[in-house]
Amino acid sequence: MKNIVAIGILMFIFSCTGEKSKEGDQFYDQGEYEKALESYDKFLTIYPRNIKTLYNRAMTYEKLGKAESAKTDMNTLLSLEPKHLQGRIALGEIEFRSANYKGAFYQFDQAVTAHINESKPYAYRAKANQKLGKVDKALADYGVAIRLNSSNGMAYLYRGTLFVSQKKFSAACSDLKIAKSLGVVEAEQAIKKYCK
Q1: Is the terminal CB of the chain with fewer CB neighbours within 10 Å at N or C?
Q2: φ and ψ at 50, to 5 degrees?
Q3: Distances (CA, A) of 102 to 37, 79, 132, 134
Q4: Is residue 17's pLDDT more than 50?
Q5: Measured between alpha carbons, how far is residue 6 from residues 3, 16, 17, 46, 168 in Å?
Q6: What's the chain's average pLDDT?
Q7: Mean pLDDT, to the nearest integer, of 111-136?
Q8: What is the 3-class SS of the chain, one letter each residue?
């Protein structure tokens, strides 16, 4: 009888705390980031190693402009699951936005190493290489990203911008038009500017 009561109490606690994570997701989707953060905090006090909620809280911190807190959560997540693709890329993006291109490259490079057959990490690593002035390596990575997934619009967009910087406008416009056809909104403005 005691076991049944204990199991019932545990199930009740889990269902209540599990709702906090779902509630946080709903608040996040509605743009209510402070409320989302509160829900994620409550959930993580009981389940501090929950990968999904750590990731979601990090993204919430990002929306609130709290990059250091976001990095802390991403580093915790990656210590628990080092090959977490979205976590690596998100941490790399945080570093990239803060102009720490070497830090961004490191995270993207780790993502490539762990997911060698995925297109996305190559495109991100290429973007970091581009900022670091490593043009040949960036072009090679963009090429791999496109070869692995010809629908990777981001790879076409950023390779197009790299071609623009090299004044290779024909190649740039070709890539930018492909990016636009793949739904990359940013490509439209670049086409208007460079492809006459």
Answers
A1: N
A2: -75, 110
A3: 30, 20, 8, 12
A4: no
A5: 5, 15, 16, 17, 69
A6: 91
A7: 97
A8: CHHHHHHHHHHHHHHHHHHHHHHHHHHHHCCCHHHHHHHHHHHHHHCCCCHHHHHHHHHHHHHCCCHHHHHHHHHHHHHHCCCCHHHHHHHHHHHHHCCCHHHHHHHHHHHHHHCCCCHHHHHHHHHHHHHCCCHHHHHHHHHHHHHHCCCCHHHHHHHHHHHHHCCCHHHHHHHHHHHHHCCCCHHHHHHHHHCC
Tell me the two tokens of residue 147: 């070869």
- Alpha-carbon distance of 194 to 190, in angstroms, equals 6
Question: CA–CA separation, 105 vs 117, rounded Å?
Answer: 18
The answer to whether 44 and 57 are in contact (CB under 8 A) is yes
How many other C-beta atoms are found inside a 10 Å radius of the C-beta of residue 110? 20
Q: What is the rounded CA–CA span in Å between residue 54 and residue 78?
A: 10
Q: Check if the beta carbon of residue 129 is closer than 8 Å to that of residue 138.
A: yes
pTM metric for this prediction? 0.84
The structure tokens 């071609």 sit at 163
